[in-house]
Amino acid sequence: MTAPPNEPETQRSAASGADIPEAEERVLSTLNKDGSRRWMRPRISTGRFLTGRRVVAYSLMVVFTGLPYVSVNGMPLILLDVPNRAFTFFGKTFLPTDTLLLAFLLLAVFIGIFLITALFGRLWCGWACPQTVYMEFLYRPIERLFEGRHYRSGGRAQLPPWRRLAKYGVYLVLSMFLAHTFLAYFVGVDTLFQWVRGSPAEHPTAFVVMAATTGLMMFDFCYFREQVCTLMCPYGRFQSVLLDRQSLIIGYDPGRGEPRGKLKKRSDDLVTGTTERGDCIDCHLCVVTCPTGIDIRDGLQMECVGCAQCIDACDEVMDRIKRPRGLIRHSSQAAMETGRRRVLRPRVVIYPVLLVIVLTLFGVTLAGKAEADVDFLRTRSRPYVVLDSGQVSAQVLVKITNRTQEPRRYEIDVPEAEEATSPDLPLTVDGGEASTATVRLVLARERFHQGRAPISVRVSDDNGFTAAFDHHVLGPLFGGEGGS
Ligand code: SF4
Ligand code: SF4
């Protein structure tokens, strides 16, 4: 084991100028007291949690990279086609007309997050969030490869130029790979391969998007790093709302650890028979291993991402000084104080009930969706004309959204009309696309009441789909109705 440092170097200012005024205490965990950036180079603490996280992280990297290649019934498992506003999940495409479905889906995701946080705290952040996974298990290991495993934090590491260049070269290749993987979720792998194979001159927009995404990855993983979790991510900020005193957190047991004291003091106390010491030997290993630079002994903090590195570090110390493990452990705030943890509480009952309700509504709405959506648009020209015969000629704009994946040919029929003609029919609409047909109707004047005639528009396709949609055609008020 590495010898514990006497004083954590995290307390030092990285700036060399002595005349820079220092704050009384650190404002952010990623800033030194003089306001300069505090670069984290956390000590790696091996143990059961790190082993578990490594297995999860490398499995997730395979999943994150592989998901865009997986398809269900010929459709991608996930495709977020933002320009066309079509979102595919598990082979099912949601179009802009599916606002209700998307709202239910989003609501279910939020309630799921609330539930998981109430039960397991920030398990997602420490174990599965792509930011943590790539930062801690890809970029930091590479950094250690080039800079060594020392765990000093504060200023930047001093590296020979060639070493620094090589490190950033590897980062660039990785960031390009991650940028391609990320974009595959938005454009699909086929388009992505087209972009990659073609010259940048053929796809200038795609090239700019790719370069910008790579730049963002470099900025995130090389410079901004843990600040994404501590400053930007809204999830961490909502933590105090989402967690209650019974939620699972990683906490230090002050009842067992305090009063803390260094090993040297402890042996002096033994000799003099003075103060009774707690189990914390104030070695700071739990501090120097923390990727967000906090001291878990100060209590639950927003910056804690639940990575359990402090548990692995402290357990190792406890083994060494022959004290039971778990001075820092998974527990709840209430359990740390009373020794009892209550799993069953109102929010862990209410959230699942809400989740079931929302998912049921989602399922029912989805099941009720036809293979095509039909909307009636307003015509810009005169809505109707009274013919010499006394009949009324009106135009109806029928917009058909093909919700299937294949092209379909649609026919439109209006049984109430004497005539229903359209130069647009049959209307061919590609899968996931929408198209509009202008239908000219001739209706008997008797059908109009109060200037409106109810009609039923029947839409059918060449694949057996058929559905009727109620609509009203605007027309004149006739003599008997007080109009002309
Ligand atoms: S809590 Fe554990 S790791 Fe942290 S300073 Fe105390 S003994 Fe060391
Ligand atoms: S306090 Fe512990 S669990 Fe929280 S981020 Fe730091 S090392 Fe990870």
Question: Would you kindly provide a written description of the structure presented here, covering whatever features stand out?
Answer:
With 484 residues, the chain is an alpha+beta fold. The protein has two domains: 1-369, no CATH class; 372-481, Immunoglobulin-like, CATH 2.60.40. 40% of the residues lie in helices and 17% in strands. It is built from 16 helices and 16 strands. The protein has helices at residues 48-66, 99-120, 123-128, 130-147, 161-187, 189-197, 204-224, 227-232, 234-237, 239-242, 254-257, 263-272, 285-288, 309-320, 333-338, 346-367, and strands spanning 71-72, 75-76, 78-81, 86-89, 92-94, 249-252, 328-331, 372-377, 384-386, 392-402, 408-413, 419-421, 427-429, 434-443, 452-461, 466-474. The strands form five sheets. Strands 8, 9, 10, 12 and 14 form a five-stranded antiparallel β-sheet that branches. The protein has a four-stranded antiparallel β-sheet with strand order 13-11-15-16, with no helix packed on it. A hairpin with a 4-residue loop joins strand 3 (78-81) and strand 4. Helix 2 packs antiparallel against helix 16 (346-367). The longest helix has 27 residues, at 161-187. The protein is elongated. The model is unreliable at 1-17 (pLDDT under 50). Bound molecules: iron/sulfur cluster (2 copies). One iron/sulfur cluster binds next to helix 14.
